[in-house]
Amino acid sequence: MTADPVDIALFAAKLGAVFFAVLTLAAYLVFAERRILAWIQDRKGPNRVGPFGLLQPLADVIKLLTKEDLVPAAADRWLFYLAPAMAAIPALLIFSVIPFGAPLTIAGHTLPLLIADLNVGLLFFLALSSIAVYGVAIGGWASNSKYSLLGGIRGLAQLISYELSMGLALVPVVMMSRSFSMTDIVTAQQSMPFIVYQPLAFIIFLISITAECRRIPFDLPEAEGELVAGFHTEYSGMRFGLFFVGEYINIIVLGGLAATFFLGGWHGPLLPPVIWFSIKTLAFAFLMIWLRGTLPRLRYDQLMHLGWKILTPLALFNILVTAWLLFLTS
Amino acid sequence: MSIFKETRNLLGGLGITLRHMLAKPVTIQYPEEKRTLPSRFRARIVLTRDPDGDERCVACYLCSAACPVDCISMQSGERPNGRRYAEWFRINFSRCIFCGLCAEACPTLAIQMTPDYEFCKRDIREMIYEKEDLLIDGCGKDDSYNFYRHAGIGVTQPRGEGLEETRPVDARSLMP
């Protein structure tokens, strides 16, 4: 990029807007989750703060910020401080490679609606999603509590059982778009989203990213029925809040990725591209909440079984079939 | 194949939660909406009066003896005609557990429970209700019962004047 001041200003504005949008959306996703879960359970949910309870996230943030910041005496202080950031920041960083709209043209300057058009965007996502689990593992380790440690270990063990199938589910996408760049992947779906050609890969990816979000039915690192609160048992105040908000940023980001890889990204009829992208992302977020209201938690060995014995072989089989078909048609 | 069955089960579960999501919540928004309570709801205790307007309590201490948390205390007194009453009567509502045993123990239906559950005070001493606070003007749940019409023979009325009584027989006149 040339050092044109208009370009720099546009980029800064884009950066600020994305930051603001993702964080606000994450805060309101917490609120939406509480309301929707309440509806599922025939309750009303938080509706007291502001009209329809819409100021509830603000009240939550004030509460978390004014809470005592407690560090257990036996904890590894610096790792304990570091872990929440390690859980939240990779999630935010992944969003930088997601194209959330068609390129805009403002006053003769083209503004691509994504932060960084990496030519290895997909690999960047896979790398960062693996780093994010270090937040869980380090948080669990540094707390020096048995529940946290078990949660952290589960987080790592869970990672190796779903990450493989997640990566393998994306291989057909790369094969069909012939690129690791997110922009190219979206462009390749201009006529038809990949979910039509790759329904199996989409389902495998969907199950894997549910595990990646560490949410029910795969919330083994948290498992409040067994491990108190798992890896964040010892966290309080805004440090806990960072773990918490990281989880919701993760939902948004993974929803955006599912939209980008399989649902055609920002492509869609009639409505503006950014709206289409938002609809697809929020539909995924809704699905996550809906699943949470429906399913019980899997047992530990069941997740391992699902990841290693079912999803990974299926994904490999899918790659073979895709390669064969691509070879025949080319 | 079990995968089809399990997928169907999964979708069925999602369908049930979706149906409940769209159904009307059962929540009652308490301070704004209140449900109508049954008349036998056990909350604030009152002392009632008999149909003639006199207080029913005869200070028999049965309620305070029945009370599992000892929140009822009183001092009995006697009117010149022998009719017993409570000189003072005190319920400490900060201890009361609203079990209703006092109302069950009461032989004269004087002490009764009402559905008024919303009372709280800034100062805990205000939760101690004296006789003036407890006594109400009505009869409560039974508006015809009057203890001394049935029992307490010879105290407020001559012998034989009670409802289930016959006049006393003059033993000397009972000749064969």
TrEMBL record, chain A:
Main subcellular localisation: membrane
A Pfam family of this chain: NADHdh
Residue spans crossing the bilayer: 12-31, 78-102, 122-143, 155-174, 194-211, 248-268, 274-294, 306-327
Membrane protein topology class: Multi-pass membrane protein
Reactions catalysed: a quinone + NADH + 5 H(+)(in) = a quinol + NAD(+) + 4 H(+)(out)
Record gene name: nuoH
Provenance organism: Pelotalea chapellei
Oligomer and partners: NDH-1 is composed of 14 different subunits. Subunits NuoA, H, J, K, L, M, N constitute the membrane sector of the complex.
GO MF terms held by the record: oxidoreductase activity
UniProt family annotation: Belongs to the complex I subunit 1 family.
HAMAP family referenced in this protein's UniProt entry, alphabetically: NDH1_NuoH
Record keywords, A-Z: Cell membrane, Membrane, NAD, Oxidoreductase, Quinone, Translocase, Transmembrane, Transmembrane helix, Ubiquinone
Lineage: Bacteria, Pseudomonadati, Thermodesulfobacteriota, Desulfuromonadia, Geobacterales
Function: NDH-1 shuttles electrons from NADH, via FMN and iron-sulfur (Fe-S) centers, to quinones in the respiratory chain. The immediate electron acceptor for the enzyme in this species is believed to be ubiquinone. Couples the redox reaction to proton translocation (for every two electrons transferred, four hydrogen ions are translocated across the cytoplasmic membrane), and thus conserves the redox energy in a proton gradient. This subunit may bind ubiquinone.
InterPro entries: NADH_UbQ_OxRdtase_su1/FPO, NADH_UbQ_OxRdtase_su1_CS
Group of enzyme by EC: translocase
Protein name, UniProt field: NADH-quinone oxidoreductase subunit H
Record's subcellular location: Cell membrane; Membrane
EC number: 7.1.1.-
NCBIfam families: PRK06076.1-2 (NF004741)
Record carries keyword Membrane: yes
From TrEMBL, chain B:
Originating species: Pelotalea chapellei
Stated name of the protein: NADH-quinone oxidoreductase subunit I
EC number: 7.1.1.-
Alphabetical list of InterPro entries matching this protein: 4Fe4S_Fe-S-bd, 4Fe4S_Fe_S_CS, NADH_quinone_OxRdtase_chainI
One Pfam family from the record: Fer4_7
PROSITE patterns assigned to the protein according to its UniProt record, in alphabetical order: 4FE4S_FER_1, 4FE4S_FER_2
Catalytic EC class: translocase
Record keyword Repeat present: yes
Record function comment: NDH-1 shuttles electrons from NADH, via FMN and iron-sulfur (Fe-S) centers, to quinones in the respiratory chain. The immediate electron acceptor for the enzyme in this species is believed to be ubiquinone. Couples the redox reaction to proton translocation (for every two electrons transferred, four hydrogen ions are translocated across the cytoplasmic membrane), and thus conserves the redox energy in a proton gradient.
Binding-site residues for [4Fe-4S] cluster 2, renumbered to this chain: C67, C96, C99, C102
Gene designation per UniProt: nuoI
Family: Belongs to the complex I 23 kDa subunit family.
Keyword annotations of the record: 4Fe-4S, Cell membrane, Iron, Iron-sulfur, Membrane, Metal-binding, NAD, Oxidoreductase, Quinone, Repeat, Translocase, Ubiquinone
Subcellular compartments: Cell membrane
Top-level taxon of the source organism: Bacteria
Residues in 4Fe-4S ferredoxin-type domain copies: 45-77, 87-116
Membrane association type: Peripheral membrane protein
Chain coiled-coil ranges: none
GO terms assigned for molecular function: oxidoreductase activity
